[in-house]
Amino acid sequence: MSRSRFLPDNFTFALLSVVTLASLLPASGKLGHLFELLTSAAIGLLFFLHGAKLSREAIMNGLMHWRLHLLVFGSTFVLFPVLGLALKPLLSPLVTPGLYTGVLYLCVLPATVQSAIAFTAMARGNMPAAICSASASTLLGVFITPVLVNLVVLPNGGHASSSLDSIGRILLQLMAPFVLGHLLRPWIGKWIQRRAAVLKFVDQGSILLVVYTAFSAAVIEGLWKQVPAHALVGLLVVCAVVLGLALSLTTLLARKLGFDTEDEITIVFCGSKKSLASGIPMAKVLFASHAVGAIVLPLMLFHQMQLMVCAVLAQRYARRGREAALLKTAE
């Protein structure tokens, strides 16, 4: 019997299990330091493998569709931060200040790659443009997200030195392995493509490691004493409002600007999603260890919510596409 699309997937159950484990048995002292080292190594390996997997041809295929890319990047790095700031007076009373800081953080993150492309394919959208847009969003996020963290997330505004320092650390910890992997792609790319399960294991395993390490530090600092149950319920509402507005506005803008249905699908799925795979490693670099747990909690919840909602939306787009094809055949 297949699992309902409304139920969380196996990875989400794993995330919940890791959060529970960190809450009951947090890693501290020398063990905590060991997990920090393991996490850094796993993240470096993750970005190395993604660099080796990324095809230059896939990027070039969609590169020329500049209007679509501008709208996706505008949604990802302008619309989302504006929504987070504009909704703060209305939504921040529903959660704690620390959790709303996490909401602002998810608003400045790049888009997902795998799920955005997968949903675009499921909905019969513009695949080359989706591959290019989602991949470029991840790369641009390395430079844009640290700046936006200082401008949007930190309460006292941004400072160029801290932004540049954050960019430098991200370049060293994330981009250097990525570039090295991409340079080695001619020799190892096909080997990695034949072993997709390895990349998936490293991808999910590194995130689980970061979550356990982050929540361990946060629990030791008293995370769950600072986050009451009503704030978690409020966080559900906050994430639902932000996601609902993002999906509605990207759809409306795509139609108002005259994009066809295939491009609209790409804009909606690439412009409304936020990356857990990039967001958690970046949070580890950008924030103090004890603060990362509360910072990434909204992202984890938003991630699962966007997967469930977009799965339903992609199926609706696909059905509409099949019906349109049948009408054309009948004519």
Keywords for this structure?
Na+/H+ antiporter like fold; 16 helices; mainly alpha; single chain; 331 residues
Please, could you describe this protein's structure?
The chain has 16 helices and no strands. It has 331 residues and is mainly α. The two termini are 39 Å apart.
Mean pLDDT: 80
Specify the CATH class. Mainly Alpha
Structural class: mainly alpha
How much helix, percentage-wise, in residues? over 70%
The biggest sheet, with number of strands, parallel, antiparallel or mixed sense and barrel status, is:
none
Q: Which spans have pLDDT < 50 for at least 5 consecutive residues? A: 156-161
What distance lies between the first and last C-alpha atoms, to the nearest angstrom?
Answer: 39 Å
The tally of helices reads: 16
Give me the count of strands. Answer: 0
C-alpha geometry: globular
CATH topology-level name: Na+/H+ antiporter like fold
Q: Using only CA atoms, what is the Rg?
A: 20 Å
CATH architecture: Up-down Bundle
List the domain count as a whole number. Answer: 1
- What is the string of SSEs from the N terminus onward? HHHHHHHHHHHHHHHH
Instruction: Provide the β-strand percentage band.
Output: under 5%
List the helices and strands and how they pair.
Blueprint: H1 10-24, H2 29-53, H3 56-62, H4 66-86, H5 88-91, H6 97-107, H7 114-122, H8 127-153, H9 160-183, H10 185-193, H11 196-220, H12 223-226, H13 229-256, H14 261-271, H15 276-286, H16 289-330
Could you give a short description of this structure?
The chain is mainly α. The protein has a single domain (17-326), classed as Up-down Bundle (Na+/H+ antiporter like fold), CATH 1.20.1530. The chain is 82% helix and 0% strand.
